[in-house]
Amino acid sequence: MTPTVAPNLASATASRRQFVVGVSSLLAGKAVLASGAAASTGRQSAVRGHDVDVVVVGGGFAGVSAARDSMKNGYSTLLLEARDRLGGRTWTADFDGDQVELGGTWIHHTQPFVWAEKERYGLEIEETPAAVADAGYLIVDGERIRLTEARYVETYEAWRRYHAEARWIVPRAWDILHNRDAALAADRISATDHIERLELSSLQRNYLRAVIAIMANGQPETMSYLELMRWHLAGGGFLPTVEDSVARFKLKRGTRALLQTMAADAGLEARLETPVQSIRDRGDGAVVVTGAGEEIQCRAVICCLPMNTIADVAFDPPLAAGVVEAGRQRHAGAGFKLLLKAEGDVGNVATYAIGEPIDCVMTYKQAANYTLLVAFGKDPSDLDVDDGDAVQRALRAHVPRAELIGSMSHDWNGDRYSRGTWAVYRPGWVTRHYDEFQQDRGRILFGSGDHGEGWRGFIDGAIGGGIRAAQRAKSLLG
After folding, report:
1. How far apart are CA 230 and CA 235, in angstroms?
2. Which side of the chain, N or C, has fewer Cβ within a 10 Å radius?
């Protein structure tokens, strides 16, 4: 029987093999946020000649954090978001009655900004079953290798050897260039280049390559060695803690609940479906021009757009050349994420693969008569996620007896407001671009979660980027 895929948010007819995936069910905060030109802050700048004090561009976690803190700092603030929802590359969705995350998902107490928000608002977490799986496999060219206790020990040793110099090269994960020369030397080689320097077994090499592909969400050689060390050290420098940091705890009511709570806390009002055309620093303030041609006069702008899309906005003064170059090249996160629904209980499994269209499959939820799984792949050209038979075959390489009912995904690479998944720096990017990535431009401040340190590319990094940008706006505006 051919499974039916509910692709990319398209509607489908309800049946045992199909789900209705309506766009209206996926909107975050639509009921509390006004849309388009009808929105009005109701608050104006006290400074003559300005409509508001601060305009925040981009409504992901970075933008919502920046806007909330700017309002709490006493500045009239307007948030502009091109999509019809808040969240950016996070998206809480309904999948045949189950809440799932199409984008960013997991949080952890090693992630200081997001964990503080979860504590501040008293939000509950829940665990992903496969974080403590009953069975693990490494699949290499079609061969499924059961990860016994002894083999897990072998893979942990591979991870330890790989990062043996990490604490010396990057002693401070939130100050990545503290040991500048060593860090830049590590930046110039790929994460896979470093594997070749080590004496490892075949199992260990294959394990490392599989894990790097998952972390990069792209070809493993496109992630720098420095970038992988940053993940390792931010996660506590110990593989089980790193694994828990990136794939164990998620918000019980979804990322949408945190976004809505943050927005409500500040009385934040936003204009959805309002892309920005240009941003200009005029010296004593700034002008933001929307796609509809409306001009908004403000004292400062906080830009929280993803790095792969920022060059779509015209800046005056222009963006730094390195920022434009990196955005046009795109960061390495260019894979896909799939939510899969299989018949029955297929078990609590975690699998990793080399040479398969899907790099990783994890049990997301176990129910009485079905199992939800989450899967990642490094290259969308390896798998047509809209082809139910192809997805079925790819899943069975990981879970041989799984009978696929349906799947759900979003094309983050084709999405013009993201053009990629999570941000992963390529070899040499810190050397060539890092200083330019950090630069504000007069009245135009930058708070993207794709730049910065620590958990860059994660929800935590986005919140941190927004909070720090709001602090700099406060220093600027007084």
Report:
1. 8
2. C
